[in-house]
Amino acid sequence: YREAWDKDKTQISIPSDTPVMLQSKVNALNISNKHYQKAWDEAKAKSYDLRADAILIKHAKASRDIASEYKYKETHEKQKGHYIGCRTAKEDPKLSWAARAMLLQNDRIYRKAYHDSKAQIHIPVDAMSVQAAKECQTLVSDVDYRHYLHQWTCLPDQNDVIHARKAYDLQSDNVYKSDLEWLRGIGWVTEGSVDVVKAKKAQELLNERLYRTRPDEMKFTSITDMPDVVQAKINALQLSDV
């Protein structure tokens, strides 16, 4: 199938100055990496003169120094060995600040002035606040609140005394229940009371044994020649395996 094409494609010749060939050559030059880097390779092969004090070199060095961690910490590393300390803790600002913070946070030192001055307060005896406190104490005091009155002496035959005794006897629980003292210790059988009889009647109404009669207790005689009995016997003989 391809034999004719394979013979013909080797005999085709295209002139090199045709537009298609020229365009392909131009495309090859544009795509070629070697042609793209030709000028750079030629410039590398030649010698060049770049001074150390050039602007680009100085800019590169400055950028490197700024980005360098060693240059960033160079000042700190130089001062780290020269800092010995202060003669006293008060001269050191950090230690002074720490001591001040500790004093502010110390509760004992915070209340020292109050404890020193609280015992030096002198209040006059007749001050208004002291008098008001004494009156409040008298009103709240349990001793004065429970102060018993003197004992009255009354004649036993006075009308108010007799009336008070009668009222006390009427309100007394012992006197109110004195007529039932003879019943104390006497036993009582509840058989025959209204509640017991009512409970028995309710039990009889709810008793299923008395409410329903069991079939096996009922007496009856079955008739043997009834049509349904005869049909049942015939069905039993037909269904019997024997």
TrEMBL record:
The keyword Repeat applies. One of its GO terms (cellular component) is Z disc. Pfam families: Nebulin (PF00880). SMART domains: NEBU. One of its GO terms (biological process) is cardiac muscle thin filament assembly. It comes from the Eukaryota. GO terms for molecular function: actin filament binding. Keywords: Actin-binding, Repeat. This is NEBU protein. The gene is Neb_4.
